[in-house]
Amino acid sequence: MPGTVRGPRAVAGGAIGGGRMADERQAGAAGAPATGAERPGRRGRLRPVARAASRLADRVPAPWGFVLAVFVGSKVVLSLVGVIALSAWDNVRGAPPAVETTMRIQQHEVSPHRWISLWFAWDSFLYDHLARMPLDEPWRNFAFPLLYPLLARPFAPLLGGHTAWALLLVSNVALVLQLYYAHQLGGRLLATGDRGRLRGTGEQGGGEALARDDPAAGRRFTRYLLLLPAAFLFQAALTESVFVCLALAAFWYAEQRRWLLVGIVGYLLALSRSVGFLVVVPLALVLLRQHGYRLGPRALGRYLRVGWPLVLVPAGWLTFMAFCRWQSGDWYAYKHAQERGWGISVQNPLTVILDGLTRGSPGDAVRVWFAVAVLVIVVCGLRWAELPYLVYTVIVVLVPLSIGPPVYRSLLRYLIAAFPVGLVLARWARRATVDTWLTAALALLQGALFVVWLTYWTHFII
């Protein structure tokens, strides 16, 4: 404030001859020493900036301020760790081995800046190829669903034609939206105490939350979703953030009984990954729970009248199958491309788990133990009202395992789709002490896996 600045200067400036020291002592006694007279001036200049920043923050609607802060914070930390880890490998001979240098060259072609290029690995370059394929020519690559590369196409011209950058932009925008839906859904499902339990019965009000949503619980779930062991892949140029964003959005709108939106989002979900169309099963369970799991004739009619948009979910994958038929004459071109490219064949997922634990390499066993841990956590931690989320987790864990041993190297990537694990961890971490230790442990685990992923030539996470 101007008056605050002038006061000390007036006192210090009022010294005459030999009385200067006495006046300075008076100024010091008044709490405003002459030697610090400029500090209030600097503070005065900073106060308007602080007030403007505060007003800007107040205008950001909840929970976007928290969501953006978590996103930016995680991006900065992971990018910094990644650049440091890659720089450390520069001084190690044979890293990467001579036969594994192709990906390093591809990364440099994407960008010479490591804090950008480090987010591209493995399937990222295949999606970049799909995003650049002309749409007016016959399509020959059916091994990957279409949604992710198609979403990148409109953004590429805005980025100078860089389809790879457009893919990274899509993934990170999807991550921001994913964190928003996580906050909303977590606050609804984790509302504390008996008041927060879902009723699950009743014609009109059944299934509604008995209490307001719990923002603190929503924030915890959002954090733990980003602390899952391989959650750094949400920020990479891969489909994980798009898939989980759409899954969370579908469940959020289902909990709100906005079934037309559920159908639209579910259609896109099925176009993003093959397992997406099976999410119709847990979404249907949300509808059943909201009406007390009644199965009489009147109830079935109500389900059809209210939940008919759920047919759009499998229609998404049927659209991709029709595209395959149109372009290749083969409804199952996706399946056949997977079989030719990676030797994939449908198997019993339980057998694949057992083989990974008993016959596979130590690395395979570690990956499979992560899958077992996911299933155990959700079985132990979810409540009866959250049965749809248990079924969802079983689907996104066991379906990838059904493709056989080729899944092992990508298993940790597939497991981050099991977002209900974050719900359980957020519930267990209601106490501050548990929250602190669990957060620290998961952060260290993720950091270690992130460094392993950056050393792509280990093939531990593909």
From TrEMBL:
Segments of this protein annotated with the region Disordered: 1-45
Domain of life of the source: Bacteria
UniProt keyword annotation of Calcium present: no
Biased composition (Low complexity): 1-13, 27-38
Alphabetized UniProt keyword annotations: Membrane, Transmembrane, Transmembrane helix
Transmembrane segments: 64-89, 163-182, 224-253, 259-288, 308-328, 365-382, 389-405, 411-429, 436-456
Record's protein name: Mannosyltransferase (PIG-V)
Organism: Micromonospora rhizosphaerae
